[in-house]
Design a protein that fits this description.
Order of helices and strands: HHHHEEHEEHEEHEHEH
Structural class: alpha+beta
Helix content: 40-55%
Strand content: 15-25%
Oligomer: single chain
CATH topology of the largest domain: Alpha-Beta Plaits
CATH class of the largest domain: Alpha Beta
Strand order of the largest sheet: 3-1-2-8
CATH superfamily of the largest domain: YebC, transcriptional regulation domain
Shape: globular
């Protein structure tokens, strides 16, 4: 778990909400549209849609934007046909990288992703080339400054969480995928804000590399996440605290 939670901590420290709000809203709207297209527009029966909408609300996305994104997904409003595509590849030094993209043009998306892999010394792989190194997990992320870690740990364990990790500015609660909603509701009931919840792909055997190598891989991950069509990126790195500090302040 540590690799993904540490990357989340890096992003949390680097992001400027005002600077990136437009790009964030675009990606959130795409996630809502695709979730509604895949499972319908009812938040009570479509858990993926509920997660996407909760994340959008947590980012202060206007309700009208959320409603329009749902309508596009259900076909009640015109818009580009968005779909979810998973790409797999190898970063520099052989790191496994898994990419979740939301796109209306596969040719454009794969070209942009392949270009970034090549520029950073990696390569785009075939379907199934690295996915076997990851497993699905529910992930709830909370700011550590606003959280009583001991109280959270007890509440999360009682709710059925698998693991809890404190890393710098963030506390991460991990669950089985099917228990994410239940654990989140239980934590909300005792006063914790769980809008930062997602289904994540976590490496089963994280790899440790030299700090210099890890930095080069994270530069690729950051570049991939900056693409409009890319929703989330996962890698099998175990990131050291020294790299967290160096990359977050770069």
């Amino acid at each position: 778990m540590s690799g993904h939670s540490k990357w989340a901590n890096i992003k949390h420290r680097k992001e400027s909400a005002d600077k990136k709000r437009g790009a964030v809203f675009t990606k959130l709207a795409r996630a809502i549209t695709v979730a509604a297209r895949e499972g319908g527009g009812d938040l009570d029966t479509n858990f993926s849609l509920r997660l996407a909408v909760d994340k959008a609300r947590g980012a202060n996305m206007p309700k009208d934007n959320i409603d329009r994104a749902i309508a596009r997904g259900t076909g009640d409003a015109k818009g580009d046909q968005m779909e979810r595509v998973v790409y797999e590849g190898y970063g520099p030094h052989g790191a496994a990288i898994l990419i979740d993209a939301l796109t209306d043009n596969r040719n454009r998306t794969v070209a942009e992703i392949r270009h970034l892999f090549g520029r950073h010394g990696g390569s785009l792989g075939e379907t199934g080339s690295v996915a076997w190194q990851f497993e699905a997990r529910g992930m709830i992320t909370l700011p550590s400054g606003d959280t009583d870690a001991d109280e959270l740990a007890l509440a999360a364990i009682d709710a059925g969480a698998l693991d809890i990790e404190l890393d710098g500015d963030l506390v991460t609660v991990m669950t089985e995928p099917g228990r994410l909603h239940q654990v989140g509701q239980s934590l909300q009931a005792v006063g914790f804000d769980t809008h930062e919840s997602e289904l994540a792909m976590v490496p089963t055997n994280p790899v440790i590399m030299e700090d210099r190598q890890t930095m080069s891989i994270l530069r690729l991950v950051e570049s991939l996440e900056d693409l409009d069509d890319v929703d989330r990126v996962w890698t099998n790195l175990d990131i050291s605290d020294a790299v967290v500090e160096a990359f977050a302040s770069a």
